[in-house]
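Render this sequence as a predicted structure.
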Amino acid sequence: MDVKKLMNLIKKNEGRKLDFKLRLDIDSESGKKEFVKDVCAIANSRGGRGYIIVGVEDKTHNIVGVDISSFPTEEQLQQVVSSRCEPPIPIVVETVYLEGKQVVVITILNGEQRPYQVREHGSFYIRRGSTTDTMRKQEIVSALQEGLNLNVETCPIIRSSTKSLNISLVDRYFKSKGVECNDENRDFLMESASITIKEKESYKTVVTLGGLLVFSDINSIYIPHNMVRIVNNVNLSKPTISIVQGNLMSIIDKCEKLIKEILPASYPSNAILEGIKNAVLYRDYTAFYGVIEVYLGYNSVTVVSPGNLIKDQINPMYSGEYFKRNMWIYEKMITLDEKNRFLQGGHGFKIMKKAFKNYGRVKFVNSYELNSFKVIYPGVKLFE
């Protein structure tokens, strides 16, 4: 690392990917545990490479330096990390001469095997701002999904029932695939397509998360976070708040009807519907605390979706691409959609921008802290 880049890092405050340490102790057991916990937390946090800078005060950012003669070697540090983290986390150790002192930079490389855990007790850690904390359940599930280690859509929803499924929708899906579905083969076909799954111990058939989302009209009984909340601040003749629930296709259809009824005819509502459609398809359905929210206002129109956009780490050669969640759901939706609304080939952002070309900018806000993605459009006042 060159001096200029290091100085830029030192000027920053500690955060998800940056930690300052006055000294590093791996001689004691407690010191090793603390170091491994910090490395694991930084590696599990989103945002690319992370850095632990040793020889700098964390509050004042004063450069104190370290005694290199007694400082652990890269091999020693790597040995501590690889023996205590699962899977091993790749690190690089560099010494930089700065203001007459030597500073050690430990780079935690952006691995593709998140989430990482501490072997000793199996804990997963993450950075929240400048502090290290244990990962929450939905964060672990999300990390597994991003690393393609878990297909969350095919996970069973405990206590769900196949009676909640819209069988005509199920039959239409298989018919579109050229498979005739009837009472004799339906259970087999649904299990083969991961719409349902049979529990290993009880042999009871339950519905998967994806099965409920796509094929159940009453899925809110089991997954109440599958909802679009529309806040109307522009049309007094329509309800201020509308709650839209149901299977994913019906949610999109209902939202389309509501948005067109609320907004002026001159407003490019199709751009808003594009944002809602993308939110329904690609939101993080492991975020059980969040719903899709649409705010219709005079100054701006906003669509907020749980789950931020994540750069594709699995195929790094396509560095401009984002990881696409819910591909199981996507396949079902493009099969069922008779209006061909999902065949844009990833041009959703362009469609949204183009619709407001002569009226203002469409802003995209990707928040790692809030785990959300927000689209902000020009407001209704420009079209009245």
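Summary. The mean pLDDT is 89. DSSP finds eleven helices and 16 strands in the chain.
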